[in-house]
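Notes from the pairing session

We agreed to fold both candidates in a single pass and log them together. This is the raw record for the first candidate, unedited. Please don't reformat it; downstream parsing expects exactly this layout.

Candidate A
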Amino acid sequence: MNPDLIILADAVHTMEDWTPGRPAPQAVAVQGGVIAAVGSREDAAGWPAAEVIDFGAAVLTPGLVDCHIHPVLGLELTRGCDLSGAKDLAEVRALLRAEAEAVPSGDWVRGWGLDPNVFGSAAAHRELIDDVVSGRPCLIRLFDGHSALASSRALELAGVTGPRAFEQASEVVCDPSGRPTGLLLEAAAVELVAHLMPAESFDERKARLAELFTLFARSGLTGAHVMDCGEGSLELYRALENDLDGGLPLRLRISPWCMPGSGEQDWRRLAEQIGLGGKRWEVAGIKLFVDGTVDNGTAWLFDPDVYGESVAPFWPRPEEYAAAVRFFAGRGIPTATHAIGDAGVAAVLDAFESLPPAVRSVAPEAVHRIEHLETVPDALIERFSRAGLVASMQPTHCTHYSRADQSDNWSTRLGSERANNAWRCADLRAAGTTLGLGSDWPIAPFEPLPILADAQLRRRAGRPGEQPVVPGQALTALQALEGYTSHAARAAGEWVVSGSVTVGKRADFTVFDVDPLSAAPDDLADAQVLATFVDGRVQHLAVGAVR
């Protein structure tokens, strides 16, 4: 063995069983982008290497992977004023007023990350923003990414004067007289207005994407499961990989959307994209939706929410969703389905449980997933564990947007019983389910260390005064780390090549200045990522990280 690189750290968490009686690993050798050896510092002294990097008392783990993220879509969703920190309507209005004054006259005013809790008991309405933007066109994206609030002028420019019919469960919300309130629910409705806004140039988008990927690497990420593939996405990845020395700083596993109103001809076109890619990015799955969000009233519940909403599936004819599942599963193509409400999760389980044995046997290694699973009763937990589906969840959706006293919009809509079934991470793990974790950025921040902390705390890290939300669903430190490493690999069907520090697997690593398995969660959230490696090549190295 003649490794290209040896990495030393006082602790290496391999995320697989280590042979009892052997010294705790402290050294990893890399050759040709894969792990060539794992052992002690004494072992490493006998490995002739071209380069040695010693991180001293640091801790090395497999590279962290975000299991649900939207890099390119996020570029569009995060244009304009960041409203995610606004705590009430007055603060939202002040931020929008400042944004309107800052952008040139005649330009659109944009905002994003709006938490519906700022409206209190009032309904979101264009009249709440018209005056502060001085009658200009304005579109504000709500935090969930599934809805937006448009100003009166924006609706006028779009010619939106009343209700519209769509192929999917979208809505132009109107008052009793039939006039639009400005609230637009789901992508088809939002796009009525959004398509009018000037688009960034390709070069502008590429520059922003490069900056975003740099931030991902600094945060500890070495990979991401990308849950969208909009127009120009693949061209951006290809151009950026060609421009950057050494390629992209993290691996991307991409899943284009399959939407209602599509048929077999559309599905074939999607299937033809599978396998497209470059050195560190690949189209490797399909993303579907069966519902929207609880906060919008577009989730799919067995029983209506407190406002009589959230009872309609995203596919108006759910049997067409099941047909799409059969089409992709029958071709060995992995799927990931957005399902938030209990009826939505049940519909996905129904679709997969009804697959004929011949379809299931086409590619038993193809992984099928459910994304989000925000409120799930006991009976579905039991079915989930038998179905062999993977769960993909986002702990900070719980800790950022719901409250222990259930006074938030999400809990109020659902009522106490369903709110007590919130984000059942621990129960899914206890049932033997593979559980991948992620951020869903830009819906919530992408930094993985606070997410690992929140998964254990069931409250926001750094806020010890907050009460945890359904604390019995907290993950252990090991389970949380598995969600970003070993279980993330299994959620992608990539356990053979990634997810643990094992000889023959990819040399993707994250290096911490604390031990993520023993540090207090609040301390972990504030810890420093010393380095990330992809293919054994440094993608981020903090100043002073090397001994």
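Candidate B (folded immediately after A)
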Amino acid sequence: MRQLICPAIALLLAGATACGSKDEAPKKKATVATESAAEPEVEAPKPVAALSLTQIAAQVAAEAKKLHDEEPAAMAKAEKAAGPDGKVLKSLYGDPAARFYAPDGQLNEDGQALLDLLSQLDRHGIDKTGYRLTQIDVATKKVVDSLAAEHEAQVALEKTPHAALVAAAIGTWLHTGQGTEAELVRAGGDKLGQPGLSALSTALPQLLTLARTTREAIQTADVELSRAVIRYVVDFTLAKPAHPLLYTAPAAIRKLAETQADKIIATLGASKGHTAETLKKLWPSHPQYLLLLGAYDAYKKLADGGGWQPLPKLATKKVQKGETNAFVGAMRERLRAEGYEVGPAGDHYDDTLLEAVKTFQARHQLESDGVVGKPTIVELDASAEQRVKQVQLALQRYRESEGRDPGTYYIWVNIAFQQLWVYDDGQVIETHKVIVGNNDTDTDQQTLVKGKINRTRMFSQKMTRVILAPRWYPTQRVIELEIGPKMAKDPLYKEKEGYVMEVQPDGKEVVYQKAGKTNLLGDVKFQGPNKYNIYLHDTPFRALFSKVRRTFSHGCIRVQNPVEMAELVLGRDKGMSRQAIKDAIAEKEEVEVKLQTPIPVHIDYASVAVDDEGRIQFGADVYGYDEAYFSGALPVEEAKEYKAASARGL
């Protein structure tokens, strides 16, 4: 098991018990003896008149019933005290019996599995402040202390034959709420004799009090664990603390247990006995999520091992192969610390180091030329701790993604990497470079907004059709701000670029660009309905795919090899061959092919990914979303309204 979240729980799992079994009397010393849970002192009860075993059983039964009858009111009080968690707690504890503790006060298997999940919160990049771990520790310590006190009271009866074993049976009865006089007899009650009955009668009030304390402590600790369960559901399915646009503030996250109580209750459902298993199923099923957990482990190990030293200041603007200086030696050791093959120590920039630098640059979306300038140094200077935080943020982004559970056959686009992957049954079957929306400040006169309006959005859609030799219908903004001025300067621009102006029967003028070499959608368009009007398509500007970072579109996603992707999509859906696709494109007349089975398309923004060969990659924060998260500047305001007059001169 991973490291436990609190020391008192470690004590509990180590085997502190409130009572012995029917076959073995309690030991002289309780197993709990630490700074956090000192063995309590138990005062010797004053002798009282001996009761019969039947009378003792009657008192125990009455106390057990009283405890049972009091539990609904105690739970109602706990639910009220839990504030936003109260409604869900009420649903979970419709049956007042504990969920995570066995009757003897030990965590059950589900409770132990839950603690294992809670010990991994950092690994998932989860903020632990909402999990009340201190309260869990305090409540657990009370259980440990109370069990120890019960155990000590039972140990005190060992001098009288069979009395300790019967006392242990009494404790079990009171903890479970179920028992009979016959069970006390089986524990040795028929062999007590007058001395045993006298000793047990004297100790009985204390045994009843201690058992009550233990039962109440168990219920409190159980409720604290249940509140952690509620927060787990919130964090893994509802909260969006890293989303640049749909950001959930900490105060709002705390209220989600109340405002989304019905969803949480439905999620947990009949999870009693296997709550931890239910929670684990809340992890995103996207293949990248488990791979990123592995990336966290790798960089956490590097960080815990001391990471690497910052590089010295470079005396020149850049350093490249063939140079010899102290910076090269420091860079070699820096790369070695992260696991790169850099050869023996030395200050000379040789071929081995060159290949390591190129690999590093490729893994950080930099120009892979071996020339070390400011962009490469910035990435080299990022500490192991920073890398851990980046991985944690990427994990959070997947929990928030609409594509977190993508299905079997789907297309995944990562904006930060400007890359597209086609998945089938968990395996990547095709990969394409893409061009995504630019990060320029722009103006839209139609909607009267100004800002970063060309950014590609993070969302999911379903591709419903593929259009071969598509027409392009520019927006009114593009017509007014881009096409119009060019036509005014060049009377032949419209003919050269293939633009057609048609007047519809209603008198409305429509502008479109015919299929052909100049068409801005290229040869293929992949489309599905979405509120952003963002789709995948070809482009005539092929040279842009040679760029390392590709943010050049107005929001749509341009695909590097669209004909190959059309062959995959249409071949699978329609049995359409590559030649048939090419022949249709060659006709230069728009052909729309509707898909029998729509394909999910998930567009995400995560700046850490793991490639097909298991290598960890760090993408570019092209829209500054990561920086906004780390600096506490979420949500991001991408655009805002402006006065139309401000667009004059554009």
